[in-house]
Amino acid sequence: MKHYFSRFITALSSLFLLQGQAVGQADNKPISADFPYQAHFVEVLGSRMHYVDEGQGDPILFLHGNPTSSYLWRNIIPYAAEHGRAIAVDLIGMGKSDKPDIEYSFLDHVRYIEGFIEALNLQNITLVIHDWGSGIGFQYASQHEDNVRAIAFMEAIYRERDSMGALFDQFRTPETGWQLLVEQNVFIEQVLPGSVVRGLTEEEMTAYRAPFLEPSSRKPIWKWPNELPLGGHPAETVAAINAYQGWLVNSSLPKLLFTAEPGVLITPQDADWLRQNLKNLRVVDIGPGRHYIQEDNPHKIGEELARWYQSL
Fold first, then answer.
1. Which is catalytic among the residues 53, 54, 131, 204?
2. pLDDT value for 28
3. In a 10 Å sphere around its CB, with 0-12 CB exposed, 13-18 middle and 19+ buried, how is residue 152 labelled?
């Protein structure tokens, strides 16, 4: 297990040295670690969900994935808030949202986000989605297309895969995965910073660690790799993702895809498939990036998101 993990981190480090983007900069603009937004809470299915709410107009709803929070969008929110009501929510069990005693399955998260949208009475939504937030967003849009204006996505879960490699095989092995993700907190301490080209500052790492300081708080982090649609398992998640992939191909909703080089979930080959198969799709390349591309070039993402949103 240590051998697999060492190889994974070594490969990431070599890649980042080759790409060499300056730490803390994106297109010569500073990347801020600050999160200067007022906290809001709403009760959903008996638990409080935290969100930030900036600007006015139709809602632009930001959905994060594993193991992040609304903090991931901190440098992008201001661009959206100039043109609409930018709302970034913490998924249930993550960020500052409550941690109820649930399974934290993909469909559990879908239910909480559906409840969140209903509780805030959000209408004519533009979704901005990443990682598992993309799965939740695609699922919601496929079931509520009449309430969705457009979708912007990046490093998204849009299809089933055969494998995510040896490290994720370890994450999905019951005892080993629990030890790595809950007891050792590997996803926060190693995978997250290792998947950002510029690296993360200690202040940024402190913000990402904050919701998961105790092992008992890390069940959502552990559950997400076990929900990945790999080789037909888990069947319920695979069925949902295959269904919304079919919807994505057939939907004419405006779509904006952000790509990065080399990417993880959206490689150049994935981007080519999406270009060929999705209608009404615009593609923007942000430059060097692996998985958490909002940490590598948030200003390019924000600027292009605002430009596209104004064109809708």
1. 131
2. 74
3. buried
